[in-house]
Each structure stands twice: as C-alpha cells, then as structure tokens.
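Why do we care about 3D structure at all? Because function follows from shape, and shape follows, mostly, from sequence. That is the central idea of this module. The next example makes it concrete: a single protein chain, its amino acid sequence, and then its structure expressed as tokens.
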Amino acid sequence: MSSKAANKKILVADDEPDVLHLVTLNLKNAGFNVIKAENGLKALTQAREMQPALIVLDLMLPEMSGLEVCKVLKKDPATAQIPIIMLTAKAEEVDRIVGLELGADDYLTKPFSPRELVLRVKSVMRRASSSPDAGDQIALGDICVDRVRFEITVAGKSIDFTATEFKLLTVLMERRGRVQSRDTLLNDVWGYESAIDTRTVDTHVRRLREKLGKSADYIQTVRGFGYRIADGRK
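And the structure:
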C-alpha cells in the first residue's frame, strides 16, 4: 500500500473552466499533483493511463457522463480501486444515491467550499492508503477481512469493494456486537466531524450487504440508530 500512499496524483474532471481552475488551484496548494479533464471520455482515458490516487468527477460531463465514467472504471479491475468523489450541481437524493451505488466513495454538491473539498480528498485517500499491521485479519463465518492484502473474501471467494466499503466492514467487524450509530460511522469511517446526510451510511451498508450475499445477515439494522455486526445471524 505504500506506493498508493505516495501517489499524490489527482484527476479532476469538470467541463466548467472556473470550477476546474478553482479545484485545481486548491488541490495544488494542498500539495497534490493535478491532472485535468474537460469531458468524460478524456477523464476515462486519463484514469486508465495515469492511475491517479483519486478522481474528483463532475456528474454532468460532455461526451460521457460522470456516472457512466464511474460505472466503467469500477467494473475494470485495473481502475476499480481508485477512489472517486462526485462533484455535481445536482443535489437531488436520487443522483447522490446512484453515484454511491455505482461505487463512488463520496460526493459534494455545487456550490462547495474548496476547504471542505480538500478535507474530503484527504479523508478518502487516508481510507484508501491505510497500511495496517502484518498478519491482521478479521473473520466471522464465511467473511474474512485481510487488512494486509486489502482483501475481502466470502466463503473463500474474493469480492470487489471500494475503499469506503472496506473501511466500513472493518470497523463493524472490529466492534462486533456493539451498535454503531450513523454519526459514529460517519466520523470513524468517513472522517467527518460535523453531521452531514446520514443516508450516505445507509447507501453504503446496502451495497455492502448486496456484495456479501448470504453472509449479509450478519449486518443488523438497529432502527432509528445505526448498525452492528453480531456473532449470531438475524
């Protein structure tokens, strides 16, 4: 994971020159190297060729939408692990949920705070490049999380996941039997100290359950509060 941690290249895709300039300037000031793309096809090509540490991806792009770019990247094993932050003028819940369900790690709606964007980028990159102690595995039933190999297996079969999904499952399994509120998960998984839309947690839990298949029953919902992983199935 050290090579990923050292990779400070960020791809920013946006067709609005002012936004592209603002995001690029703030990320460069924060010490990142920025690759720019003005349309979806260029973003897809550069993501494949440059293998950035993270992508800031506008939803409404010419030639190929941000959602389509995200979908293609997440289906390709060579690019599936690149974290994506959606940056969009669309604030409707359905647009945010679709982006997250396609594998995006986070989202920001325009207008946005450049400082918050930089904080989100750093938070997502920390989750993607964390390097735990050697030999550190967590297992429950058919689920095994290998924090050294950055791998999740169910019944011995490796599954695809985002950095956020990996961190979410790891946190829940580390705290097995203890209920975790949505606010706690937002803080400990996403790194957000202030309250934001907690439906972000629900969307990621739903995606995680789908990927775990029959083993998803280990993740229990505590109505009105949050989630926990228990030893016994629901």
